Amino acid sequence: MTAFFPVPADLDPADRAAAAPAPGQRLPGHGRDCYGCGPDAPHGLHLELFAGDGVAVTARMRVRPRFEGGPGTIHGGVLASAFDEVMGHVPTMCGRFCVTGHLQVDFAAPVPLGVDLYLRATALGVQRRKVFTEAHAWIVEPGPDGIAVEPGASGIPVAAAHGLFVQIDPASHYGAVAAGRRSGAQKS
Ligand SMILES: CCCCCCCCCCCCCC(=O)SCCNC(=O)CCNC(=O)[C@H](O)C(C)(C)COP(=O)(O)OP(=O)(O)OC[C@H]1O[C@@H](n2cnc3c(N)ncnc32)[C@H](O)[C@@H]1OP(=O)(O)O
Q1: What is the DSSP annotation of the chain?
Q2: What is the ipTM of this complex?
Q3: Which of the listed residues 89, 99, 100 should we mutate to test ligand 1's pocket, taking the one with most ligand atoms within 8 A of CB?
Q4: CB of 101 closer than 6 A to ligand 1?
Q5: Which one of 44, 57, 82, 117 has the lowest number of neighbouring Cβ atoms within 10 Å?
Q6: Domain boundaries, the chain
Q7: Regarding the domain delimited by 48-182, which CATH topology (the fold level of the hierarchy) does it fall under?
Q8: What is the mean pLDDT of residues 99-113?
C-alpha cells in the first residue's frame, strides 16, 4: 500500500519530548477554528487527536456526508487532509512546531460515508529541521457506546501516508503571512 517516498537512510531518531502528553491523553489541537482539529470549524474534519506511545499520534474521525467525493464515499482530498492533520501533530510530540513540506497518500480501498476512521501517525526520524512521518488509516466498527475504538486486528486498512514536516518559528512564520495579508492579499 506504499508508493515511493524518499526517506533518507541517515535519519536521526525522533525523541519524545519530556513535556509531551501521556499516551491516551487528548491533544489540545491547533486551534478552535483549525480545519482539521478545530471543534468550531463549521465545515471541518473535527478530528479527535490523542497522544500515542513514543512519538505516535492517533485520531478518530467520523466520515460525514459533507465529506463525499464519489457517490457514497469519502473525497480523497478529505482523507489527505486528515492524514496531514494527524501527521502534523507528530512533531509536537518531539517538542517542535512544524508545517507540511511534502504530503503523499496511498489510497487502498474506498471509504464509505458514515463509518469511523482510526488514524495512527508516527515519526520515522528527523534530519535537521525536517521530521519524516508515516501514517495509516483503518475503518473501525463502533463500540458499544457508538464511539469508534482502536481497530486492533478487526480494522480494515484503507490508506497510508507519508509526510515531511519542516520546523518553523511560529511567530516569524505566521507573522510573515499576516504581514503579506496586510500588504494586499485578501482572505476569502
Ligand atoms: C503558537 C503555536 C501555533 C501553532 C504552530 C504550528 C501550527 C501547525 C499547523 C499545522 C496544520 C496542519 C499542517 C498544515 O497544513 S501546514 C500548511 C501547509 N504547509 C505550508 O503552508 C508550508 C509552506 N511552505 C513553507 O512555509 C516553506 O517552504 C517551509 C517552511 C516548509 C520551508 O521553508 P524554509 O525556508 O523555512 O526552509 P528550507 O526551504 O531551507 O527547507 C528546510 C529543509 O526542508 C527541506 N524541504 C522543504 N520543503 C521540502 C519539500 N517539499 N520536499 C522535500 N524537502 C523539503 C529543504 O530541502 C531543507 O532540507 P535540508 O537542506 O535541511 O536537507
Answers
A1: --------TTPBP-PPPTTSPPTTPBP--S-TT-TTT-TT-TTS---EEEE-STT-EEEEEE--GGGBSSTTBB-HHHHHHHHHHHHHTHHHHTT--EEEEEEEEEE-S--BTTPEEEEEEEEEEEETTEEEEEEEEEEE-B-TTS-B---GGG-EEEEEEEEEEEE--HHHHHHHHHHHHHTTPPP-
A2: 0.96
A3: 99
A4: yes
A5: 44
A6: 48-182
A7: Thiol Ester Dehydrase; Chain A (3.10.129)
A8: 96
